[in-house]
Amino acid sequence: MKKIAVILSGCGVFDGSEIHEAVLTLLSITQAGASYQCFAPNISQFHVINHLTGEVESDQQRNVLVESARIARGDIQDLAMLDATKFDALVLPGGFGAAKNLSDFAFKGADCQINVEVLNACQQFAQAKKPAAYICIAPALIPLVYGPGVTATIGTDPATAEQLTLLGANHQNCEVNEFVMDETAKVISTPAYMLAGSIAQAAQGIDKTIKQLLVMIP
Hints:
The chain has 218 residues and is of the alpha/beta class. 33% of the residues lie in helices and 15% in strands. It has eight helices and nine strands. The strands form two sheets. Strands 3-2-1-4-5-9-8 form a seven-stranded mixed sheet, sandwiched between helices. Strands 6-7 form a two-stranded parallel sheet. The radius of gyration is 15 Å and the shape is globular. The mean pLDDT is 97.
């Protein structure tokens, strides 16, 4: 059975993993006959957002690993323990956690940096030429992992695409129900909720992406 590592970034679209994207990813992996193991860095969230009001909860502090465990139903491991030799492929769902906790792309754009543990984990797969998929805003990490010239997409938003280009990516516009693939780097990206107006729309691109990811596993 093909085994996929999934890196989460918290729980909730505005300060962690986008829950729909994460669950759709896990569902697609399972329905395709593969298995998954979730991971998350054991770090503090950048901040906590009240998802009802949109306001920052300045009196709260939350841990990315602990919050990600909500999505994984408790079956999750510290990202520091991720060993790419034990997995066939990697997936990073989106949500602002990818741009606030796994990196600071949400605040610094093309001047961003990626968390060291996240970079190490992702580069393990890149260097081993194992396929990886980045969803929604998570593709902003792709040029930081794979270097200049790698092909990726965040959909069709010009401002965000410009930041990816400044990071060194070869950005390609992509509709919500499709994906973009860099065959040389073996990395796939899909817009999901960067464009999706519903969970059904997000599911189309995510399911295609996961199926393509599994096809790329030798």
